[in-house]
Design a protein that fits this description.
Blueprint lengths: L3 H8 L3 H4 L1 E5 L5 E5 L7 H14 L11 H12 L5 E2 H13 L9 H6 L12 H11 L11 H5 L3 E7 L2 E7 L6 E2 L3
Parallel strand pairs: 4-6
Antiparallel strand pairs: 1-2, 3-5, 4-5
Helix pairs in contact: 4-5
Amino acid sequence: MLKYEDIKKQVELPVKQRGSIEIYKSNGLYKSQKIRKYHLNDKELKELLEKSKIKGEYPNPYKRQGIYKAIIQSLINLGINRWHSFKNIRDEIEKVMRGYKNINNKNFWEAFSNKIPRNPFSGKDLTGRIIQNAEILQRVEGLNCYGIKLKQLGISIHIKKENSIIYFKLDTTTEIPYNNLK
């Protein structure tokens, strides 16, 4: 089975030069998939660590102003290596995303929180989308390893449900994510 490490050199190429790879699907068919870059190269990692050291801030490896960056920044703002309730995380994500502006000078929170599900039957509400995006950041292996940047920093996101309350934690002691929701 193809792993991200197997195509890492290809993803270092400029986007137009990357091409596609054939992915075997469970139904026995192959699907062509564009190669995406999920990791930080050595130069990017060094720059991230240097900038965060200069600023005196914990590094957030996600550059684009969106939900992944907002989740990590919210966990940093609330305190690393501590459990935070979903309500606190959600409120902090809103605060962070209201600071992100798009080209029309609208904040990203409005767009994210008011997004209409593509499928009315299986689409998720705001709570479900925040949890789902945090779970995507727990992917540190395979070809769609969105969380590999966290793993490169030696950190991970933990998600747990305890007494009907969902908690999140940014853990700097392990790169292995924990999730008891699944």
